Amino acid sequence: MRNLIMDMLDLTKIESGKPVQHLSKVDLLQIARTALDTMRPYAIQKDVDMYLNSTDKIEITADPGEMEIIFNNLISNAVKYNKQGGRVDCSIVAEKNNVKIEITDTGIGMAEEDQLNIFQDFFRIKNPETKILPEAGWDYPS
């Protein structure tokens, strides 16, 4: 409950134009490992294999909490919307002055028009494949 309240306060600050970030050196490889380890029980339940395709420590200056949220969200969605016996790959590559983070999966994907909306607050894709998630007992209304 505390995390939910803190998230709502952060959202309010962001929307007011006063985002609060706590920047520090962040090891992306460690954050990715933690996110994959967190999702491993669910991935095993769904028979989804997960791989981290990076070996080098890659540090950036970022808000560690925000990076954890990003990795957790992307990886959990890659597992949740995957098929039985599927695969999730997380790649982190340093390229000159940039870092490329790529999460790929063998899941249901999303329509091109939905890709335009994924950064809107509380946006959820609605299609026949996401409407019912029987393994979690969820049934989203149309």
Describe this structure in words.
With 142 residues, this protein is an alpha+beta fold. The chain has two domains: 22-109, Histidine kinase-like ATPase, C-terminal domain (Heat Shock Protein 90, 2-Layer Sandwich), CATH 3.30.565; 116-142, no CATH class. 41% of the residues lie in helices and 24% in strands. The chain has helices at 2-15, 28-46, 64-80, 112-115, 128-131; strands at 24-27, 49-53, 59-62, 87-95, 98-105, 132-133, 138-139. The strands form three sheets. The chain has a three-stranded mixed sheet, with helices on one face. A two-stranded antiparallel sheet has the order 1-3. A two-stranded antiparallel ribbon has the order 6-7. Strand 4 and strand 5 form a beta hairpin. It starts with a helix and ends with a strand. Residues 134-142 have low confidence and may be disordered.
Order of SSEs: HEHEEHEEHHEE
CATH-derived architecture of the largest domain = 2-Layer Sandwich
Could you say how many structural domains there are in total? 2
Oligomer status: single chain
Say how many strands there are. 7
Average of per-residue pLDDT values: 82
Q: What is the strand arrangement across the widest sheet?
A: 2-4-5
State the share of residues found in helices, binned by percent: 40-55%
The H-level CATH homologous superfamily of the largest domain, spelled out, is: Histidine kinase-like ATPase, C-terminal domain
CATH topology of the largest domain: Heat Shock Protein 90
Specify the number of helices.
5
Beta fraction of the residues?
15-25%
Specify the overall morphology. Answer: globular
Roughly how many Å is the radius of gyration?
A: 16 Å
Separation, N- and C-terminal Cα atoms:
28 Å
Sequence stretches where pLDDT stays below 50 over 5 or more residues: 134-142
Sketch the major β-sheet: 3 strands, mixed
Report the CATH C-level class of the largest domain: Alpha Beta
Category by helix and strand content: alpha+beta
